[in-house]
């Protein structure tokens, strides 16, 4: 597989394997990658971007780290009465960095136009949901990171509400004792 052959494509996409294999090989715009695609397994109407995602490893450590970040907040909430604002900033900055690394990894794996990492600036959840939906649309992969994030957030919110209810009950009980 020489990148210098006269029939090297100029656009990213799936092309006949230059080694003569029956599969197609992904050209990333600069070089041939290790990603192969078997056209017989392709459904009608799926284009190169979709096929690229089928070969990509869409569940990398970066997306799982972002999806599991609320566990850090949950542990801080259950272990202390107040959490540090630095923890919130650390989680926010960490999620942006992880989203950037995740986006870059998806591009390297041949996924064309994955969900943009900058959505993590708005919210880690916005990135996890948007990325999961986009990857599902492009590859047919499951929405597992999104559902994990949703489940963790549900437990987190229920815990916060439980703590708030307990605090309100204690405050009202203390007020009733003072007024009685």
Automatic annotation (TrEMBL):
UniProt keyword list: Membrane, Transmembrane, Transmembrane helix
InterPro entries (UniProt xref): DUF2510
TM helices/strands, residue ranges: 62-80, 86-103, 115-134, 146-162
Domain DUF2510 residue range list: 13-40
Top-level taxon: Bacteria
Protein name: DUF2510 domain-containing protein
Organism annotation: Cryobacterium psychrotolerans
């Amino acid at each position: 597989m020489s990148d210098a052959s006269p029939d090297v494509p100029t656009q990213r996409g799936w092309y006949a394997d230059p080694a003569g294999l029956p599969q197609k090989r992904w050209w990333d715009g600069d070089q041939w990658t290790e990603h192969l695609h078997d056209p017989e397994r392709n459904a009608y109407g799926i284009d190169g971007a979709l096929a690229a995602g089928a070969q990509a490893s869409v569940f990398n450590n970066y997306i799982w780290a972002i999806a599991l970040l609320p566990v850090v907040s949950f542990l801080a909430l259950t272990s202390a009465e107040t959490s540090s604002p630095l923890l919130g900033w650390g989680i926010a900055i960490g999620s942006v960095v992880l989203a950037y690394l995740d986006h870059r990894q998806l591009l390297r794996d041949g996924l064309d136009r994955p969900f943009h990492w900058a959505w993590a600036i708005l919210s880690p959840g916005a990135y996890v949901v948007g990325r999961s939906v986009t990857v599902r649309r492009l590859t047919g992969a499951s929405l597992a990171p999104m559902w994990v994030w949703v489940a963790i957030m549900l437990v987190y919110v229920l815990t916060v509400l439980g703590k708030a209810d307990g605090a309100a009950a204690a405050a009202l009980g203390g007020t009733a004792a003072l007024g009685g």
